Amino acid sequence: MRQLTEEETRTLFSKLAHYTGRSLNNLIAPPTEEGPAGEQHVFRLQGSRVFYMPLKLANLSVSIPRENLLSMGTMIGKFTKTGKFRLALTCLDVISPHARYKVWIKSNGVMPYLYGGNVLKAHVHRWSEDLPEHAGVLVFDDSDNCLGFGVTARSSAEAKKLDPTGIVVFRQADVGEYLREEDSLFTT
Amino acid sequence: MAPSISKPAHKGASSGGAKGAKGSKPLGSASRVNKKNAPKRPPPTEMKSKPRTMQSNMQKKKKRVYTEKELDLPELNAITPVGVVKPKGKKKGKTFVDDQEGMMTILAMVNAEKEGQIESKMMKARQLEEIREAKRKETEARIAEKKNKLENVKDSIRNKKKGKNADKAESSTSVAKTAKGKKKSVAFA
């Protein structure tokens, strides 16, 4: 388990910034309301996977050999062999409070989404305003539970003209994966 | 006396010989003198030559330095692509970013970039939307014009028909009464 290099940090942050706004700073520097002794969180790389954890935990992890260490803290995602970064579903809890754009879906659209489908226009309850095309968006249900994240297929202006069966958000990850991908979700 | 004479004779002879020798060897003696004097003179010549050699050495060294630099420089004709070449002076290995400030600066840069991208996207989308609106309005205006034209033509035709009908009606009413008899009279076929 090691720290990220500059290049890796940049790619990781650019991916996170795709879904989150300015408040992403809080991930690194916890707000002062929590107190000056508020725990600093850090990103660590283990194999190709990036984990997000409090500094204390990261320091403790030194005592475990690399080969034996499977997971630590929250997994954010993994680096591909080409150097790109893929966000994993497990990062949902980390990014959902800092979301830049949100889409709320109706109750009749929740199940199709949790089974791995894209979000249709007919299922959309409401949008964040001024959504651009191909922007990262977090998907919520009616009662503000975060269900996953995706990428917008159309800008909000264009989506208004779309027919009800048109795809509005391409799914990237959804909570249903915890069941569907149960076997392979945490395998290295 | 003889010896005195002889001495001078000898002397003279010797001197003459010497003189003769001296006289005969001015060139040789000069060379000798030069040879004798040469070790005295060389130092300045050597002194002169040394700085030259030093300068030349210095120049050579400078040239070597340049050539080394030049060896570092080639990028265009190198076999390895520019992106793959590792910088020579830099330290090997990874540079980690673990301090909060470094991460914050990177994050700020990334954020600014991202916002710029989003802004440009929105601008593009708005411009496209405006263009589409303008086009739609144009097409609507054209359709409305066409409809108006058609209506006008229709109206004009109707008016004409009406006019004709009215004329006809008037004429027919007036003529019909008068021409009824004619018609009847004419309708022999």
TrEMBL record, chain A:
Record Pfam families: pre-PUA_NIP7, UPF0113
GO function terms (MF aspect): RNA binding
Coiled-coil zones: none
UniProt entry keywords in alphabetical sequence: Nucleus, Ribosome biogenesis, RNA-binding
Domain called PUA: residue spans: 101-176
Chief location category: nucleus
SMART domains in UniProt: PUA
Top-level taxon in the UniProt lineage: Eukaryota
GO CC aspect terms: cytoplasm; nucleolus; preribosome, large subunit precursor
Subcellular location: Nucleus, Nucleolus
InterPro entries hit by this protein: NIP7_N, Nip7_N_euk, PUA, PUA-like_sf, PUA_sf, Ribosomal_synth_fac_NIP7, UPF0113_PUA
GO BP annotations, alphabetical order: assembly of large subunit precursor of preribosome; maturation of LSU-rRNA from tricistronic rRNA transcript (SSU-rRNA, 5.8S rRNA, LSU-rRNA)
Record function comment: Required for proper 27S pre-rRNA processing and 60S ribosome subunit assembly.
Assembly and oligomerization: Interacts with pre-ribosome complex.
Family: Belongs to the NIP7 family.
Protein name (record): 60S ribosome subunit biogenesis protein NIP7
Protein species of origin: Penicillium antarcticum
UniProtKB/TrEMBL annotation, chain B:
Region (Disordered): 1-69, 135-189
Sample GO molecular function, one term: mRNA binding
Basic residues biased stretches: 179-189
InterPro entries tied to this protein: Loc1 (IPR037650)
Keyword hit for Nucleus: yes
Any one GO biological process: intracellular mRNA localization
Source taxon at top rank: Eukaryota
Localization (cell): Nucleus, Nucleolus
Listed Low complexity bias regions: 21-31
Gene Ontology cellular-component terms listed: nucleolus; preribosome, large subunit precursor
Record's subunit section: Component of the 66S pre-ribosomal particle.
Function: Required for efficient assembly and nuclear export of the 60S ribosomal subunit.
Name the record gives this protein: 60S ribosomal subunit assembly/export protein LOC1
Organism: Penicillium antarcticum
